[in-house]
User: Fold these one by one.
Assistant:
Number 1:
Amino acid sequence: MTYCVGMLLDAGLVMLADSRTNAGVDNISTFRKLTVFQRPGQAVFVMMTAGNLSLAQSVTGHLKEALEDPQEGRPGLFDVSSMFEAARCVGDAIRAVHARDATSLDAFKMEFNVSVILGGQIRGERPRLFNIYPAGNFIEATGETCYFQIGEFKYGKPIIDRVVNREVRLQRAAKAGLVSMDSTIRSNLTVGPPIDVVTVKTDEYRVSSHQVIDAEDEYFRLIRARWGEALIQAFRDLPDPDWL
Amino acid sequence: MTYCVGMLLDAGLVMLADSRTNAGVDNISTFRKLTVFQRPGQAVFVMMTAGNLSLAQSVTGHLKEALEDPQEGRPGLFDVSSMFEAARCVGDAIRAVHARDATSLDAFKMEFNVSVILGGQIRGERPRLFNIYPAGNFIEATGETCYFQIGEFKYGKPIIDRVVNREVRLQRAAKAGLVSMDSTIRSNLTVGPPIDVVTVKTDEYRVSSHQVIDAEDEYFRLIRARWGEALIQAFRDLPDPDWL
């Protein structure tokens, strides 16, 4: 499984991805799911993937090849002039992998299962965030819904719904992402550290910070411990019902 | 969808069920999913169902008919001498419905999808709690895992994991159940009030309280508002990361 969350804020982008992969519960490995493509000062793209790892790696590989060896009908990410075009470019990469692999997977009754969150900024535009589906179609984050999740999203959704909106600072959004990741890791064994946390400040056109947080990370441990204690205290402070 | 949670404590049982049912997102109704069977002083059973509503109602109907008209090979719930036998009785009811309906459902590519949480106490035993699957097999709650959930369980699981264990009082467990229900209702439109909350005190062999909580219920509104505020405050109190 996987858990990735991308947040689009006035201040920029915050992207978090876990790195646990499992083929069955008896085969668990660590694979990074977050990839950065950037030409500092010109354009930055942060891509996170969920679903079948071979498909996710193929999509990423396809995009990397297109960057190194652009061909007719296969523009690279740095050939595009808007984030909308970049999302189409990723959608096309997914469709190319589908054309190559879907029939063979189907023979093994395996679903074509890969999703992507793409965030970034190209000079001349504001930062933008997209959720790209296995069919290559996509949706874009707006003011009302400024974040996307892929993979095991349910355990970590409530806290993000409560505290994240376009106005929050990058630090606060990163903190919310880590609390959300903590709730997910506690409940689903197939989501686990290290966690990639990337921030992109608006109008910098480059990655502003990239943290790789493992289970021993001091700040993550502090957040986990204090959040757990605070929840228990908050629960104790609620009045009991008087029915009994 | 549905969300039900049953908790087995030293002090007794706490069972909560929502009452929203949907056939698609454009057809939402209210159906109660919690049923009580009791002979006060002798035995009490609290049953909650999730899955296909017609199957759940058929299972409940089957059990009610067996109570009114016991036949060879179809013992009623009050004919059993242990909660283990009661769970088998419910499992047999599920299998009887499967024998009748599964082939016809399959012709419409519909899954045979019904699950039951059964809690109760029979004189001579301690209270016990079971999770009964669509195949009629079941598991029993133990000291390590003293609760079961069926339906949309993920949003509401973290808080129960943090605050419920065998030693907590009934009031506190009911409060945890309502906080868990609140998180679920906020995130999944197909889970909704009124909420049945039943408590059974150990060695009373009867329902001790049965609350039907609608969205306007004063205590539920208080819990929802204060929990939301407390979470936001707890989040603010966590230190921000210093990466940026």
Number 2:
Amino acid sequence: MPEQTNVSSKAAHTVSAYDEELQFLMRRIAEMGGVAERMVEESITALMNSDVGLSQKVISDDLLVDEAERQIGEKAVSIIARRQPMASDLRDIIASIRIAADLERIGDMAKNIAKRVIAVEGLAQPKKLLRGLEHLSELALTQLKEVLDACATRSAELAKAVRERDEEIDAIYTSLFRELLTYMMEDPRNITACTHLLFCAKNIERIGDHATNIAESVYYMTTGIQPENERPQGDETSSVAVTVDGK
Amino acid sequence: MPEQTNVSSKAAHTVSAYDEELQFLMRRIAEMGGVAERMVEESITALMNSDVGLSQKVISDDLLVDEAERQIGEKAVSIIARRQPMASDLRDIIASIRIAADLERIGDMAKNIAKRVIAVEGLAQPKKLLRGLEHLSELALTQLKEVLDACATRSAELAKAVRERDEEIDAIYTSLFRELLTYMMEDPRNITACTHLLFCAKNIERIGDHATNIAESVYYMTTGIQPENERPQGDETSSVAVTVDGK
């Protein structure tokens, strides 16, 4: 295929060092996304297996995503300052800053889950709840993987699909929330562990939210359209009431 | 004082329409900050007084901050695209995008607290816990007010002070977290209300975190230096264990 028919090359600018700089940004986002994804996976594995060693690895890996965010931010600003990018490149650059911020938060969520592995170690953790958490995290991870794919392949379609699927995570989170409350009421010895698991569930739900934010940035980057903020709204547990007799 | 000695006027660009555009951004940030601050105040008042009407106002006000963020983002990108800003202006513009994102999240936190007002209405809410929450929210609001001042007055000093004070909020949040767990263990009928209050406390702690993020953006905007990510790290409750017998 001749070079000029390749839409993604945006042939209008000729400075190849500039192209390389833009590609550097996208490559760094992809790498950062890979690290964040691995941190989420490992934090859940550590939680399921009470693996304190693995959880400590996740905690220290958080520095990698922090550093990546700083680097992407600095590079983005430096490209804008020196290259005076045209509109479509500018969208890519601004989207990189936003996506890096969301990935950094996802790293924080994974780190927070990892810290709780240490807190709940040795406490009774109802198996059924752990399975529920695992299921929730699988959905969140799928969202994260697909939105990173959408970013790498510049697919507005895929980004849109991710954004629309966030509701599923929210529904499962809400039912897990109810279940956790019920366990706490059944036996006060469950309260400490369940509270930590509640925050783990909330962290996973927020990972889903950040994946949705990234989907919006990818959509903006590829289409130039900022999606309306009216998306299916997250966490419905704020209105959940469970009473001791289960009503 | 002669115009040219005023550092903040950045006399290098002469297009006054451009200055107005930059000022528009900062004015919009200040307005948005005012709305976010009011939402936080009102969500806490609603929680303290079980005022469902006020909580509904907070929930609908969230649209204002969502809209403000979108507007600031669009304006920022359009200024960069058309004006090719020089480095120091570019920092202001990039910082506006970041600050608007944090303010939008603060609005979300206030909305989440407001939603829980409805969930806990009519349930027993230990007075001492509510006072603890109120105290936590006063600290978070002080942080928010001061960081908005730092932004309006372009004070790197003030921004630095806000960033360093985040630890205080974290310490109080951690003790409140312990107290909430203890109440739940004492009487299972407290569990539903306490769980919602736990999330309210977490939301307030996160408002403090977002104020700290804004402090970092203001610091960057005024000095050009990105503060190292190693700041006093938030939520220490992830390692809190409370057992039924209170040990």
